[in-house]
């Protein structure tokens, strides 16, 4: 049977080997041209990473493809190809909420590929400071979760900082219960980020009702504690389990099977038009009747669709609010530009956080 199997597989494997030889030659040709692109960019002090261009490349290939590769496969393959080409030009650094093994680190690799120098930070504030100080070119921070809502600290820092949003990543969140030996005997504490504990509260109540729940700075920190103490269980992803040598006791314990976290990429350079963009802004209005209607009227008038509307107290003691709004389109699109110009005349405060390619 083995001889028959091998005789049928050999010609197919030979064809794959021949195609691989063509692929490696073409990929090296592509990389050589990418290096030439890098030299041209140096002459004009242009950024190495252009998210809108990479989005256009991937979208074009997805449209061209007739299968069997799915769109997400093409996205993953070409992000790594382009990341490797970028690394040949110059290493890029991205700060994220650490330590190593967090979902934030996963979001960094999902967006930039694995040819990226990650800079783990202890807090979201540190991520912003790293980018502002120039110790990292980009930062990746969580902005909202489908189950728990907005990440308040990120919203507050976006208001205060001069950094721009240049991209987004929507990451499926799959929480796993992790221990040293793959069991729960002797477990006295479950350690995880507060949001992760909240996202798994029904499962924990049903399966570990008498075990203490301890909120820590990140899920990866919980995994680190579990790796040091056999009485601690962690809630984290597979990346953390692998990094800290833990076993998965129960997989996918999140209460919402469709749990997602949205991350944004922050940096100094604005992103250009990709053709599939979002624009994020913060506005405030006077506390008077019809104020919110007046705020939204320019968007409706110019045919601009709103995808997100979040309010945060202005913390001035006057019951006023900042509104965080995402709209479809780029700020350079005619309809969006007209709506923002009119909105600026009606709002008491308007800050455009950035226009950037949407996550597909």
3D architecture notes:
With 360 residues, the chain is α/β, with parallel strands linked by helices. Among the domains are: 93-173 and 260-266, D-Maltodextrin-Binding Protein, domain 2 (3-Layer(aba) Sandwich), CATH 3.40.190; 176-250, D-Maltodextrin-Binding Protein, domain 2; 272-357, 2-Layer Sandwich (Alpha-Beta Plaits), CATH 3.30.70.260. The chain is built from twelve helices and 15 strands. The chain has helices spanning 2-43, 51-64, 71-89, 103-112, 124-133, 152-160, 194-199, 201-207, 219-228, 238-244, 291-301, 334-346, and strands at 93-97, 117-121, 138-145, 149-150, 164-172, 176-179, 189-193, 212-216, 232-236, 247-250, 260-267, 277-284, 306-313, 321-328, 349-357. Strands 1, 2, 3, 4, 5 and 11 form a six-stranded mixed β-sheet that branches. A five-stranded mixed β-sheet has the order 8-7-9-6-10. Helix 1 (2-43) crosses helix 3 (71-89), helix 2 (51-64) runs antiparallel to helix 3 and helix 11 (291-301) runs antiparallel to helix 12. It starts with a helix and ends with a strand. The mean pLDDT is 91.
Protein topology:
Blueprint: H1 2-43, H2 51-64, H3 71-89, E1 93-97, H4 103-112, E2 117-121, H5 124-133, E3 138-145, E4 149-150, H6 152-160, E5 164-172, E6 176-179, E7 189-193, H7 194-199, H8 201-207, E8 212-216, H9 219-228, E9 232-236, H10 238-244, E10 247-250, E11 260-267, E12 277-284, H11 291-301, E13 306-313, E14 321-328, H12 334-346, E15 349-357
Parallel strand pairs: 1-2, 1-3, 7-8, 7-9
Antiparallel strand pairs: 3-4, 3-11, 5-11, 6-9, 6-10, 12-14, 12-15, 13-14
Helix pairs in contact: 1-3, 2-3, 11-12
């Amino acid at each position: 049977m083995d001889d028959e199997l091998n005789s049928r597989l050999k010609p197919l494997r030979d064809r794959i080997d021949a195609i691989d030889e063509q692929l490696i030659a073409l990929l090296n040709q592509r990389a050589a041209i990418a290096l030439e692109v890098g030299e041209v960019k140096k002459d004009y002090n242009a950024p190495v990473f252009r998210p809108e261009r990479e989005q256009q490349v991937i979208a074009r290939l997805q449209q061209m493809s007739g299968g069997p590769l799915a769109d997400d496969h093409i996205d993953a393959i070409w992000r790594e190809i382009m990341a490797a080409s970028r690394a040949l030009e110059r290493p890029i650094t991205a700060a994220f909420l650490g330590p190593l093994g967090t979902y934030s680190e996963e979001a960094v690799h999902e967006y930039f590929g694995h040819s990226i120098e990650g800079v783990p930070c202890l807090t979201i504030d540190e991520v912003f400071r790293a980018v502002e100080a120039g110790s990292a070119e980009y930062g990746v921070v969580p902005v909202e979760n489908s189950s728990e809502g907005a990440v308040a600290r990120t919203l507050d820092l976006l208001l205060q900082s001069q950094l721009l949003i240049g991209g987004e990543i929507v990451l499926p969140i799959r929480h796993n219960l992790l221990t040293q030996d793959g069991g729960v005997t002797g477990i006295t504490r479950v350690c995880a980020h507060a949001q992760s504990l909240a996202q798994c509260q029904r499962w924990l109540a049903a399966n570990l009702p008498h075990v203490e729940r301890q909120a820590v700075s990140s899920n990866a920190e919980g995994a680190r504690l579990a790796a040091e103490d056999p009485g601690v269980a962690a809630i984290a992803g597979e990346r953390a389990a692998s990094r800290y040598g833990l076993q998965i006791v129960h997989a996918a314990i999140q209460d919402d099977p469709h749990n997602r976290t949205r991350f944004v990429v922050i940096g100094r350079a604005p992103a250009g038009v990709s053709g599939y963009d979002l624009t994020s802004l913060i506005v405030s209005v006077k506390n008077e009747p019809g104020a919110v209607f007046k705020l939204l009227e320019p968007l409706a008038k110019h045919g601009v669709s709103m995808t997100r509307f979040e309010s945060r107290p202005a913390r001035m003691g006057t019951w006023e609010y900042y509104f965080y709004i995402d709209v479809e389109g780029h700020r350079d699109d005619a309809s969006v530009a007209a709506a923002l110009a009119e909105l600026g005349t009606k709002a008491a405060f308007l800050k455009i956080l950035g226009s950037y390619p949407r996550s597909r």
